[in-house]
Write a structure and sequence with these properties.
Blueprint lengths: L1 H9 L1 H19 L10 H30 L5 H7 L13 H5 L1 E5 L7 E9 L2 E8 L6 E11 L2 E7 L3 E10 L2 E10 L6 E9 L3
Antiparallel strand pairs: 1-2, 1-8, 2-3, 3-4, 4-5, 5-6, 6-7, 7-8
Helix pairs in contact: 2-3
Length: about 200
C-alpha cells in the first residue's frame, strides 16, 4: 500500500487527471451518483467526452513522468568517461621558444663579446641574429637558425677565423648565454657566460 501511495505522489498532476477522468466516465455511464448528480443525456455525453480526454492526457503525463524517473543520472565519473575526446585543459604555460623571442641587450654595457640579440620565431623555426662588440659600430654576425632542445637554443657561428657555439637559456627574466669559441689559429679555446635583458621597445 505504501508503494502505491509513493508511486501516486511521484506524478500528482497526472494522477489527479486520471481520477477526474474516471469520475466523469462514471457519471456518463451510471447517469447519477448517490442521487446527488443527475445529468441530462447531453450532460452524460459531455461528461463521457471530458472523462475520456482527462483520462488519456493523465495516462500520457504519468507515462512521461515514469520514464523520466527511470533514467539513471550519470555520475561525475561516468560523465568524464562518456567524453573521452574532450581535451584535458591545463594551465597555459609559455613555451621555451616563445620565452626566447624578442630583442635582447647585454646586461653588461662594457662587454667585449656579444652586445645584442634579435630572436624570432615562425612556427617551430627559431632564428637568432647577433651583434658583437666592435668599434665604432657593433659587428653584425648575421642570422642563424637555432636548434631547440630541453628549453635551450643552440646556434653555431662560423666567423672564418673562429667557430663559435652559442647556447641560450631562459633564466628568470633574463637570458643566459654560454659561448664556446674555437679558433683556427694558435689561440686557445675560450668559454664565456653572459646575461641579456629585454631591450626597451
Amino acid at each position: 500500500m505504501s508503494d502505491l501511495f509513493t508511486h501516486l505522489v511521484d506524478a500528482p498532476l497526472a494522477n489527479i487527471l486520471i481520477l477526474a477522468g474516471l469520475a466523469f466516465l462514471a457519471i456518463a455511464v451510471l447517469g447519477k451518483i448517490s442521487g446527488k448528480v443527475e445529468p441530462s443525456t447531453s450532460g452524460r455525453v459531455m461528461a463521457g467526452v471530458l472523462g475520456l480526454g482527462l483520462l488519456a492526457y493523465g495516462i500520457i503525463a504519468h507515462s512521461a513522468a515514469d520514464a523520466a524517473h527511470a533514467q539513471p543520472k550519470p555520475s561525475s565519473g561516468q560523465q568524464a568517461a562518456d567524453a573521452p575526446n574532450q581535451p584535458v585543459r591545463t594551465p597555459s604555460q609559455p613555451s621555451s621558444n616563445t620565452m626566447l623571442t624578442g630583442s635582447w641587450k647585454n646586461d653588461n654595457p662594457q662587454t667585449h663579446g656579444v652586445t645584442r640579440l634579435e630572436i624570432q620565431q615562425e612556427g617551430e623555426a627559431v632564428t637568432v641574429h647577433a651583434w658583437g662588440a666592435c668599434s665604432p659600430h657593433d659587428c653584425d654576425w648575421g642570422a642563424q637558425p637555432a636548434a631547440i632542445s630541453a628549453g635551450s637554443a643552440t646556434i653555431a657561428w662560423d666567423r672564418g677565423f673562429v667557430l663559435r657555439k652559442m647556447t641560450l637559456t631562459p633564466d628568470g627574466q633574463r637570458l643566459r648565454m654560454s659561448l664556446d669559441s674555437v679558433y683556427r689559429d694558435n689561440r686557445a679555446p675560450r668559454q664565456g657566460k653572459e646575461y641579456f635583458v629585454k631591450a626597451a621597445e
